[in-house]
User: Which sequence fits this backbone?
């Protein structure tokens, strides 16, 4: 390992740290370059699907995640009047995964767990306050150029540097797609909605033609997500009145839940035109972003990292040629477009369906999927991204 040039990983977010853990497991040294002064403690994504947990378990991280998170065995769809449209139990996936549930655990917990696992391992090095400004492919090696001009050499470079990826820009890769006009607001509250809404599941999506929303429980708080129309100003969104008006839509007659966190963000559907230029590679948000309905963005990023490392390791060991990296692009970009983008856009359409026909269509499809265990099993294979991984593996 001492003689090998490290693989450079730009970004110590969840995807970069998973790539680092997977490379070290293969005996390949890594250098992680992170712009921030330390590992980020932003909450952001909090959904981990079954196959992602299986992968994290292989890297030694899942048990701590489960200890620090909350197992959500049930997924519900409701109408705003609280009528349950359909309910699914992830337990029926026990025949295809070691983790038949959805784990609710903030993403910073994963990055911290991985950092603690890796920090003293031989072959692992990380530089904080290391903002990468450029990435250069020299054909037989790569260089990352920091803002202060420092140049760091490596064998390959993985851009896991998020949606505004400097690596993607340095490689001249376009980020095609669109931005939704509405922004998404997450209000977190310590109030326990399960105490006032009978049989509420820890993950519940509400369909409503006027204003869809979802309730999602993480340890200690419920996260409530609402769309916000483009004309509403940031100042207005910050007010307690605005939060109360959103909360009033959850259960008639109550709007007084205390707000612990408030996060507003812009939502995009974009996929990089390729995930590879020579030895420069993209994974996670640097390669694709989507709306959070279904919790597929971060999970897809972890799936990228694991897929990419498996191929890189074989190339570095001399067991495969660089064409393997094109297969990474075909597989991961392929299913991102075919499955993740399509599904997340459909999830939003389902919840906001405006016409009675479209609303009835959604209700009928869900009722049909929940009507017997075999159909529910097939439906949950899609929801938990097991199907997309299977499909990716079939792409040659
Ligand atoms: C406000 C917000 C809320 C979100 N909420 C949800 C949610 O509820 N559900 C959901 O599914 N998804 C959500 N997402 C998306 C989810 O957080 C991402 O899919 C996930 O973080 C992707 O991980 P990543 O490692 O690819 O990128 P990131 O988590 O963005 O990590 C990138 C890392 O790279 C570092 N970096 C950036 N540029 C450079 C550079 N030039 N040089 C060196 N380092 C650099 C950053 O500091 C960061 O540590 C949210 C995103 C945002 C922004």
Assistant:
């Amino acid at each position: 390992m001492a003689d090998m040039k490290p693989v450079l990983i730009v970004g110590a977010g969840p995807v970069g740290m998973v790539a680092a853990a997977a490379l070290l497991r293969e005996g390949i040294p890594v250098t992680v370059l992170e712009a921030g002064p330390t590992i980020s403690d932003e909450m952001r994504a909090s959904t981990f699907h079954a196959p992602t947990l299986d992968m994290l378990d292989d890297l030694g991280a899942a048990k701590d995640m489960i200890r620090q998170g909350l197992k959500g065995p049930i997924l519900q769809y409701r109408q705003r009047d609280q009528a349950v449209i359909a309910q699914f139990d992830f337990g029926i996936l026990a025949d295809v995964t070691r983790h038949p549930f959805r784990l609710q655990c903030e993403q910073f917990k994963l990055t911290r767990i991985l950092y603690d696992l890796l920090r003293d391992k031989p072959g692992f090095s990380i530089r904080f306050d290391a903002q990468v400004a450029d990435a250069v492919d020299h054909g037989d090696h790569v260089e990352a150029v920091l803002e202060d001009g420092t140049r760091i050499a490596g064998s390959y470079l993985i851009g896991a540097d998020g949606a505004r990826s400097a690596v993607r820009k340095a490689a001249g890769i376009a980020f095609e797609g669109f931005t939704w006009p509405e922004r998404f607001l997450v209000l977190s509250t310590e109030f326990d909605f399960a105490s006032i809404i009978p049989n509420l599941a820890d993950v519940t999506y509400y369909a409503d033609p006027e204003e869809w929303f979802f309730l999602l429980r993480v340890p200690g708080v419920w996260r409530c997500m609402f769309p916000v129309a483009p004309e509403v100003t940031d100042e207005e969104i910050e007010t307690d009145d605005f939060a109360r008006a959103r909360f009033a839509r959850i259960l008639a007659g109550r709007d007084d839940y205390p707000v612990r966190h408030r996060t507003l963000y812009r939502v995009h559907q974009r996929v990089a035109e390729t995930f590879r230029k020579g030895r420069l590679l993209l994974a996670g948000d640097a390669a694709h972003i989507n709306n959070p309905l279904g919790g597929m963005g971060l999970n897809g990023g972890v799936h990228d990292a694991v897929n990419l490392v498996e191929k890189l390791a074989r190339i570095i060991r001399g067991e495969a040629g660089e064409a393997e990296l094109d297969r990474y692009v075909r597989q991961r970009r392929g299913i991102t477009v075919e499955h993740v983008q399509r599904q997340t856009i459909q999830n939003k359409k389902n919840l906001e369906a405006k016409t009675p026909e479209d609303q009835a269509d959604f209700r009928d499809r869900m009722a049909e999927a929940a009507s017997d265990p075999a159909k529910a099993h097939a439906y949950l294979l899609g929801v938990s991204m097991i199907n997309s991984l299977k499909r990716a593996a079939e792409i040659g």
Notes: The pocket of flavin-adenine dinucleotide is lined by residues 10-16, 33-36, 40, 44-45, 47, 107, 130-132, 160-162, 166, 263, 265, 284-285, 292, 295, 297-298, 301 (CB under 6 Å). The chain has a mean pLDDT of 97. The domain at 7-71+103-176+269-349 is CATH 3.50.50.60 (FAD/NAD(P)-binding domain). The two ends are 31 Å apart (CA to CA).
